[in-house]
Amino acid sequence: MGIPRYIVAGPSEMLAITGNGIPEILLKKKHFLWPLQKCTTLDISPVNYSFQVQAMSAEKLPFYLPAVFTIGPKVLEEANYESLIKYAKLMSNSDKQSTHIQDLVKGVIEGETRVLAASMTMEQIFKGTKEFKQEVFDKVQLELNQFGLYIYNANVKQLVDVPGHEYFSYLGQKTQMEAANQAKIDVAEARMKGEIGAKLRDGETKQNAAKIDAETFIESTKRQGEGKKEEVRVNTEVKIFQNQREAEVIEATTVLAKKKAGWSQTARLAEVEAEKAVAIREAELQMEVEKKKAFVETAKLKAELLTKATVEYDIKVQEANSELYKRQKEAEAALFESQKKAEAQRANADAELYARQQAANSELYAKQKEAEGVATIGKAQAIYIGSILKELNHNYPALRDYLMINNGIYQEIANTNAQAVQGMQPKISIWSGSNSAESEGGSGLKDVAGLYRMLPPLLETVHEQTGMQPPAWLATLPDHK
């Protein structure tokens, strides 16, 4: 067990006590330190931070911004040590010789200063130094509040050119050249006015002198004065004309000098713009590098400030998220499998329905084509029968007999009658043409004669059995009454 002791802090110090009987951190100027308690002395005096930030304006023009910030822990009344507690926690992670706090403060100031400068034009930064200082002060203070730090003073010095990007030097040279050119123009105008005035005064003097001389000469010699007067008048006009021409020459010379000065200025501006284009690209790349550095430094600071409890909490959260993700993926896999099965069944049903529809469409198409064929055959037969009927002079019985003979109707009737009278005793007629054949003497017309002799008994037999008369163009049966 330790011995209790009484501790008193210095004028610019504060005691941070932790341990037995203290929930978190107790800040005191003096304290009676008990056993199992620990006391750390905090230096709360402000510190000056001098630095030179390389920033870039909204026109992508690089420059140096020298500045001095006086920063220290924010000390308020004793009842509210919230900011000082944040500062004590920050100091607990650094030893006395560490530059961690200094690097932290400089990183915040430089980062916010660059971001603010990038949103303003060079003219706004140059002319509004007071407003720029206030903006930097507000934005940096907002970032430092989370560490319990307070800006007691901020001083932004004169802007400085980056080597190789002499914007302010060129700006001064531009101003000097403009002033010099304007002075040259003013001198030329003054010289022009002086010379013109002198010439005018000289001309007026000579005119007055010539006028007086002419008047005197006229008074003395009136008879010869008219000629001399005219001569003096002509000489005076010539002199005035010469003076006017000289004034015009001087004016033209002045205009030419102005144009030459403008051309020289334009050429110089073009060279400066070409050089600045390269400088702007280099500044953009440098700004990207600075952003990466600031990001890495910020991440490093966050990693250093994380506590073990935060790490354990993140591990638990990751494990819970991993388990939830695993279950979600299993559920999604089961749902995906069910969806695929349903899609397969729907695809089979669609295929079967499509096959049935195609079969029905094929059958319907065959029926349609068959009907079209029958209709075509009917039309052809109608045309065929119409042409035969026309050739027969619209003799319908002759058309009927022709169709029956052509389609073999008589042969079918004979076959049907032969089958019907099988086993019966029909009336059978036998024709013989032997005598006639002998009388023909065996000529080539013997067969034709025999065929014609067989027609009358054949037609009579058909008439008796069916009641049908032979066509008139073929034969006529005798009347048996």
From TrEMBL:
Domain Band: 8-190
Species lineage: Eukaryota, Viridiplantae, Streptophyta, Embryophyta, Tracheophyta
GO cellular component, one term: plasma membrane
Subcellular location: Cell membrane; Membrane, Caveola
Protein name as it appears in the record: Flotillin-like
InterPro entries: Band_7, Band_7/SPFH_dom_sf, Flotillin_fam
Highest taxon listed in the record's lineage: Eukaryota
Chief location: membrane
Origin species: Solanum tuberosum (Potato)
Signal peptide span: none
Name of the encoding gene: LOC102605355
Keyword Cell membrane: yes
Membrane disposition: Lipid-anchor
UniProt keywords, alphabetically: Cell membrane, Membrane
Similarity field: Belongs to the band 7/mec-2 family. Flotillin subfamily.
